[in-house]
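Supplementary material to the annual report.
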Amino acid sequence: MFKKETLRSEDLVSQLVSLFSDEMLSWAYSKTSKREIAEDLVQETFLAAFKGIGRFQEGSSYKTWLFGILNNKIADYHRDRIRKGHDQSKENHLDMFDGKGAWTEGSKPEKWDYEAQLLDDSEFNQVLHLCMDQLPEHWSAALTYKYLSDKKASDICQELQISETNYWQILHRAKLKVRECLESKWFK
Amino acid sequence: MNVWKANGLNSYNMKLSCIKSTVLIEKKELFGLSIIENVKLSFHLSICSSCKDYKRQSQLIDAALRQQFVTKLEFTEAEKQEIINKLKSE
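Predicted assembly:
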């Protein structure tokens, strides 16, 4: 279809960037909750794509190809964060529970209004990103990574070489924090 | 307080604290629970409306993270040009 020289042509570079970069940026942001990181990942994706243009399969779509690379970069990013993370203050979420493990007065979950509509609400999704962004990096990475693919939790633990106990403890703390953040930022 | 040991699951006590029940709610989603853990959790949820709310909200957060909701963002023209220039100089 194209010769390598043609593929590297200035025209194709400009075309692919102007066609897909916004969509890739939005996608990367939805999976990282950080605009700067999303921008970097998109740029790295284009760099990797043009370096590996020889591997581009004739007849397949540029979009699928670019998003395939981008998804790998997103997964790498989260894996890296989870591996690097370690909890210094293990107990710091406990302020929502008293010494007996009961919800403290101000921390009790309350009913959320219009629950069913929340998922389609773009503002709610924005607040969710904000809350994810406030977590320690490896917590939000662990939480996001889980939903990047359909992998089972036990397989994820093996892949990341963390114990199952460690994994659900991180996710438990992350969930408590995100829930609390959503309640205070969205419902009050 | 060490939550992972306090109110241990080996105890014959049926009572589960709220914190432990939120732990089990998450663990159940990820790895499943033993029969005893399941019974204890169901019992706790039947009497504790806060934890029942937590469970539903936790599932809602899961669903929100799982769904592919994409907020539209855009590069500025200058940023796009910068990427293009970088690619060409490679």
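Chain B touches chain A through 46 residues (CB under 8 Å).
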